[in-house]
Design a protein that fits this description.
The protein is an all-alpha fold. The protein is 73% helix and 0% strand. The protein has helices spanning 19-34, 39-50, 59-80, 82-90, 94-121, 125-142, 156-168, 176-186, 191-220, 227-243, 246-252, 258-278.
Amino acid sequence: MSSPTDAGAVPGSEPELGVGQALLLGALHGPAELLPISSSGHIALIPWLLRWDYAKADPELRKAFEVALHAGTAAALLITLRGEVEEAVHEFNPRIAELIVLSFVPPAIVGYALERPIERHLGTPATIALGLVFGSVAMAWADRGPQLRTSEEAGAADALWLGVAQACALIPGVSRNGATLAAARLRRFTREDANRLSRHVALPVIAGASLLKTVRLIRRGLPPRSTLPIAVGATASFASTLGSTWLIRQVERDRSLVPYAAYRLALAGVVARRLTARD
């Protein structure tokens, strides 16, 4: 089975990342990050489905580009959610500290220990489709539960659940937003408060991971002829995130997660059909 990195590759040639594709992928990343549909899954699958050069580009180039996309999104989220960030800083207390730390530790440990194996073995279209499916089932099942709790009631056990969810979301296709929403709904938080908790625990992870990977990228250096498309992608991701923040309010309302789960299943079905046709 071919992967996004080797499908259709021509010996002796190395496809480059075009500015147009970088712009479109950056524009896609913002809304995909804000919705529980897996931004990483979309950034890998859309070029593969459309047979773009990006799907066959050097893995290091794609990694650098995806770091730039996440950095652009993280910067936009810090601006968009600055009110919530300021409120959290002003109201910072041991309970909030515990929530942030316990939800941060699991993804940090798993990411540090397994980042490379996950990238090597779980970034193919087939495994991403499986991530979409399992994430969809978890979201739909969890959202059936009662809405009994508010975010102010979140404690250590809730934080660990959210942390484990974020660790699971390191698998492409699962979705950090979708996994944390499912975890919060399983803990019987209201849909609105589940979204608030999802944002509060995700932002430190997104910002921390983006900063760490950006530092690594600077030390390693950018791949040849990639500066312009990477800059375009990061800018597009930043702008599309700022322009899509209304999606946060749409998801935050008392709305079921089932439509998002259905969309994810449909996308997984498209991938499965393509894989079957190729085989």
